[in-house]
Amino acid sequence: MSTTHLPAPDPARTARLREALLAAAFTADGLLDLLGAPAYAALARSETVPALRATRGDSPLETLVRLFLLQRPVAYGRAAAALPVDDCLADGWLVRDGSDADAVRASLDVRPYGGPEGQDWWIVSDLGCAVGGAGGIAGGADGPGGVDRSELVLGVGGASTTLAGITVRKPVGSALDLGTGSGIQALHAAQHATKVTATDLNPRALHITRLTLALSGAPEADLRQGSLFEPVAGETFDLIVSNPPFVISPGARLTYRDGGMGGDDLCRTLVRQAADRLNEGGYCQLLANWQHVEGEDWRDRLASWVPRGCDAWIIQREVQDVAQYAELWLRDAGDHRSTPEEYVARYDAWLAEFEARRTKAIGFGWITLRKSGAERPSVIAEEWPHPVEQPLGATVAAHFERQDFLRTHDDAALLATRFRLADEVVQEQVGLPGAEDPEHVVLRQNRGMRRATKVDTVGAGFAGVCDGTLEAGRILDAIAQLVGEDPVLLRDRTPEAIRMLVEQGFLEPAAG
Fold it and tell me: Stretch 390-399: mean pLDDT, rounded?
């Protein structure tokens, strides 16, 4: 694998380049202001014509968009007005255009990216391999820029931003970005981890991660080449994040997506080995695909992956049948542009692989492990295809804190606890128009997972009174008096409903 034709930047010159990008407003906000919402959105769909029309002027920002996002040649003089062009040529960010000696081209895609606290960052990737990249990755053995397609490094996509959003962002001593790619997870981790280690099987990815961190002004990471946990054998971390090559495919053609193991074995191996690489209380968070195998419940199958001593929260966000899945990734590889015979052969190979494994569908979602050491670990696998509010890191952390609380509180302790209704929970009454009483009551979250759950009148009344001042048992006694029910019986039958409301985040134990 090659790292040739990649910039080798000098720190001082990189700082000057970063200053030039900021001065030109080559930032996420600056792009939106320049292009407007339609052209900005079109770039995310790999459509470049609106952005080309919006950058026909000669301002520094238009020049930088043409160079680094649209990957068009720019006259030397125009480039020199936007950035330190000689520095960029010396370090390799720019190269002379082969067809015009007076023009320069970008050697890599450099894409503005807004950090969680308003930071201006830039994600580096191979030409045409960022979301909205101009070149696409279809073609022969070589991809854009003459790079072997198996070595291409992608930029920011929906999966990488999803993982960044669900990651727990507590200050930690050590973080591991496994399968770093363009370095976006390492960049995020550098904001709250004392030490960041980033690994990848592809040495080109490690070099590009170094560029992403340097251009964004982040501390250097400890970069190591190798597969899975091999580069960090014997080490442990407070946080592990991974957007691995999780695609379930018949072979390993593309390093950035194909794991090279059969079926979903790569994701299963990652999960099973994570416990040995985590410190107590540490989190491992990854995106994954998994097989829906004929005759097996996917929840039970994934729960069997969870290592001893770890709590787990597994969320399935999407399911595709095997034909949809094969077509998605055949298009990703550009196989739909090959000859009909080649396309049919590749399609058939995917379906044959799934048939041999008795796979009827593929699930996609999030897996979070926390090393709790609990004798009775909490392992929850659920389907949640509904909209959520990103970032979800605090929601994920709160989920596991609630599991700790429920594990250590029996029914008597639960009734002695004071609860408060979570922020922005609303009550909806559902019934026929004009009916005296609703058919049922729904509690709905407007934050985080945005769950909704049906409750009876007792549950609705209980939740509505929870403001952290009264113990749960005392609230139930008052409700029993109001509805004419035996308070002992009500205390006996209600803890299960309270546990559900706590587990799903509608109720929170009051502080103090």
Answer: 97
